[in-house]
């Protein structure tokens, strides 16, 4: 910023050579100010890591090495030089304007100089320093070092006084301040390097995977208990070999009684060594080839950090760990290959590549039906990255597989044929058992379906503040985060947000959830078959409309009236057109309908 000053107005006209001399002097000071401002911004951007790189590449004689040795002196040199140049150039500019335009020029000199300084000594030089930091730094580092040497005594004096003053008020100057890089900063640096092309995309992904591994726990990577291939110690070696061939595992956990009591790890190479000895046969038991020290299982807690487990397995030379829960039961197993694959991606051997079929692949694209076919065991983070489901980190810490997340969204284990609407996708369960979802299809909704789904979601928010939710889009059921399905039907909050809408095994939910023709609710109980239930119709929690087909009494409605016999048979409720009556024997609300 220019500092306004005053200079004596000459009593006589100045010669042309004097004016040129004064202008050249002012321009030189002005240029030094601009250059130092550009260098200041450039070095701020490069400090400390890039400057260290330059110093290491160029050796001890590098000007960057000298600059790093006294970074506070550099800052003082920039400040001292730009301040002095600004003051002297301001006085010279006022005198120059006076020489050219007399008293009028002197009056407007401060305004003109301020504008010139802002644009040509501040904004533009600093923009150049930010956009071309390396070039700017290399051009200016030697002049700055020279100026720093010239101002060394003054710099030392002012720096010492500043340090004493800061200590007096309880502060300290640290040259290392700001050099520590947090994990979040490192992640941002990696993303920036990938975006700018400084590192390859795959390299950046690998670096991010290493950082993510430090935040992951074993239960997010392990092979879950239901997928663990293990053998009882009393089984024969023939059975062990067959199990090894079928599972393609060279190491198989051995248990006694049940899988929660793993006593060792059977290695295929030890089996072959045993069989190679004379007199040994496949009829021997697995227990006979186990050695207490050599084949002792390596146990890890399920909440342990994956990075720590990797380091521990590497040090102790274990290739497989048994993951246990807080009660000591077996949660799953984790292998060195599982941990490495988190960093470098899936690793297949030649046999796996030859036999890898479409049915076994985690993610496939069905071009004919324009949909994804995804295994329930697929990595949830990978699915989120591909489909952009915007899943939060807290969910990633709770679920590692796509199946687990889908079950959580549904509130239960969905059955084959169930649909869920998530974001802009239709998820259909293609294959499932009583314990988990095995395979799903993911299809993007059409624009009409997406708009209808969005409209229903907004209405749902207006009608209720929380709890289970259900709405119907076309023929697809959208389940909210806490909605659940019971039996063969669906149990969830009704569309109007009061009570519960239920269906029995033979019930059919009407196609339009907005209630214009909420017609058939069951083949056995014709409830409101011909009536039109407007949005003002509501059911309170004590109402059950023919939920139990074993009951003899069912509600029946026609266009003009509702005659509803209570389940206990103790009274009747009548609602005449234009009036409302809602009572039963106990006096609790039973039904309500506008005309």
- State the distance separating the first and last CA atoms: 77 Å
The number of helices is 18
**Low-pLDDT windows of residues:** 1-12, 356-360, 459-595
Class based on secondary structure composition and strand pairing: alpha+beta
Number of strands: 19
Radius of gyration: 39 Å
Helix content: 40-55%
Instruction: Report the major sheet.
Output: 5 strands, antiparallel
Oligomer: single chain
Give the overall shape. Answer: elongated
- The neighbouring-strand order within the major sheet is 8-9-12-11-10
Strand fraction equals 5-15%
Mean pLDDT across all amino acids = 74
How would you explain this protein's 3D organization?
It is a multi-pass membrane protein. This is CNNM transmembrane domain-containing protein. GO terms for molecular function: flavin adenine dinucleotide binding. The protein is α+β, with helices and mostly antiparallel strands. It has 18 helices and 19 strands. Among the domains are: 153 residues, no CATH class; 115 residues, CBS-domain. It has a five-stranded antiparallel β-sheet, with helices on one face. A four-stranded mixed β-sheet has the order 1-7-6-5. Strands 2-3-4 form a three-stranded mixed β-sheet. It starts with 15 loop residues before the first helix and ends in a 20-residue tail after the last strand. The N terminus and C terminus are likely disordered.
